[in-house]
Amino acid sequence: MLNLRLYRTAWLPVLFCAVIVAFSLHERPRGVPTTLAPDAFDGPRAARTLEGLATAFPDRRPGSPGDDRLAERVRAGFVHAFCAGVDRAECSDRVRERRFSARTIDGHRELRTVVAQRPGRLEGRIVVLAHRDAAGRGAKADLSATAGLLELAQVLAGRVTERTVTLVSTSGGSGGSAGAADFAAHAGGPVDAVIVLGDLAGTVSHSPWVVPWSNARGSASMRLQRTAELAVREEAGSPGSPGVATQFLRLAYPLTVSEQGPLDAAGIPAVLIGPGGELGATPDEAVDANRLRIFGRGVLRTITALDNAPDVERAPATGLVVHGQVMPEWAMRLLVAALLLPALLGAVDGLARVRRRRARTGRWVLWTLAAALPFVAAALFAIALRAVDLLGAAPAAPVGPGRVPIGGVALVATLLVLAGSWIFVRRAAVESLRAGRPDTAAAAAGVATLTALVVTVVWVRNPYSAALLVPAAHLWLFAVAPDVPIGRGRAIALAAGGFAPLALAALGYGLALGAGPLALAWIALLAVAGGHAGPLGVVLGAVVLGCGVSALLVARCRVAPPGRIAPPDVVSRGPLTYAGPGSLGGTESALRR
Prior knowledge:
With 593 residues, the chain is of the alpha/beta class. The chain has helices at 4-9, 12-24, 43-56, 65-82, 88-94, 140-157, 178-185, 222-236, 244-252, 260-265, 289-308, 329-356, 362-370, 373-387, 408-433, 441-461, 463-480, 488-497, 500-513, 517-530, 535-556, 588-592; strands spanning 26-27, 95-104, 107-118, 125-131, 164-170, 193-197, 210-211, 270-273, 320-322, 325-327. It has two domains: 29-322, Aminopeptidase (3-Layer(aba) Sandwich); 359-556, no CATH class. The strands form two sheets. Strands 2-3-5-4-6-8-7 form a seven-stranded mixed sheet, with helices on both faces. Helix 6 (140-157) links the parallel strand 4 (125-131) and strand 5. The longest helix has 28 residues, at 329-356. The two termini are 60 Å apart.
């Protein structure tokens, strides 16, 4: 089935693509500097505000009475800062609020967003956003974002800005980022940049302090990232930067549990700034007034730099930063296509060879697809649990570990649906196909071809995701090809090896989010049930897993290669060491003489 000569030849374009990729690297855009010191940010006053808020509003679950009372307090602070000396009509334009219903860590809740606006002379807008709510009682470090927001309102009220500066106080940020997502949907015009305030006063650091990750393709614009990093470095030291593996993982499977995620996903460039990074602070984490001052100054310096910048890039960053150089997405797409080409050609050529032998390969493609049905059924079951409110809370965006209690019953029920669908649904589908035992070249061709095709579809959608599936396309091709002389054990090992990149990706997210296997499985279940994965993502993931399981089944049924045939014994007559002229008689020419 597998033409090894064609397979080896198909690797040649990789060399040319590697050269093109090397020449595609370019420097990152520089951050926008500012020479204005952010001395206007009053750290001691912000610390006093934080203490007062923590005493008055200890319970702030999303949509709770405490959350509503804090929203009134924030509104009063905005009115005091921006409405001095203006009439009521103009004040209502500068300070407004929006009420909406959304899914939070406590289920569906009525939430409030308070918005204050400082008009500028240009059309662009800079938004500073912070959430009020908290998952645990107290959570003073979380509340430092609101204290910093109120202090920024006092600073900006007496300043003339080039761009309009909008301050936004949201709810739902304790899990699911409902407020940020609602603001992104009702932003009311173009936004140059959004600065999301993390826990400005937290004492535990999680780098990077500038978080650009998105819940969709790409991340925050590179210039915005660099500007925020430059400002934070001036005030607080090195903010840290993500490594190549971390960037690759976030681009391959976009997921973040912090509030800039839905904003970037909506096409609004946003970064989060805070010492707690993406995970934020724990409810019982202590606060440091000096840190509040330092990071508050860093945020104000970022606002000043963006306000004075001639242009703020809005396009999402889709490239990979390697040693200060940016590899553009098109270069990664080209390289992944070259790496996938040998597996794709080998599978399609093998399919053509098998079809020329009058073998029915279509039923084996359907047989492979049948292995995806249990995974689709499990995903639909999780979505159904959320629809009938049996899953508890399933916000629309991913949530961090511990924000929603792990539903052991839901996890076990989903696994039982997966197992039951494999036993009954898949078996019924396979029996209707009458495919027989998967130990033929037609079965191998069906699995290999469908794998190559689904990876190609993923490549069109996201080249970084496809890069993690390219090893599977090659390994599963060799694991199922009957004319590759490997034993059953090695074939099973090759088929299992195709899952290694996916396992490493899960490990990477587990380390980044501080989640163990059970917590990570729960986060994934909530992401599917809440709609973050999307229908196409669920279907493609199910087909990939179905191809992998089918490759394991074909490898398990693989016929052992024939043993080496021993050469026949040579029976020699006459001398054993010399059989030249003389020992066999005279040659014809000698006899004539």
